[in-house]
Specification:
Layout: H1 3-17, E1 26-27, H2 28-35, H3 39-52, E2 55-57, E3 63-66, H4 68-76
Antiparallel strand pairs: 1-3, 2-3
């Protein structure tokens, strides 16, 4: 699966969290499991996405939330 497709899938996972009355941070373990990729690969992907501003994650990229920019990106299915 391409990195662009993985980014879209991460945004989908994080956007589903917004349906909760009190959205919680999503663990990188959960994202890795759902994408069926390794934890180190997931953490690198989350770092890139955090740097792009489409998600916010903690320092070690173990917990993440989607940003407004990420929601907009998901609507447009941007993959850059």
């Amino acid at each position: 699966m391409s990195m662009g497709r993985q980014k879209i899938q991460v945004l989908h996972i994080l956007s589903q969290n917004l349906a909760n009355p009190e959205p919680q941070l999503v663990s990188s373990d959960e994202i890795a499991r759902r994408l069926r990729i390794s934890l180190p690969e997931t953490e690198l992907l989350l770092k890139v996405m955090n740097d792009q501003g489409v998600i916010e994650s903690n320092v070690d990229h173990r917990l993440s939330l989607i940003t407004r920019k990420g929601v907009e990106c998901l609507r447009q299915e941007c993959v850059n």
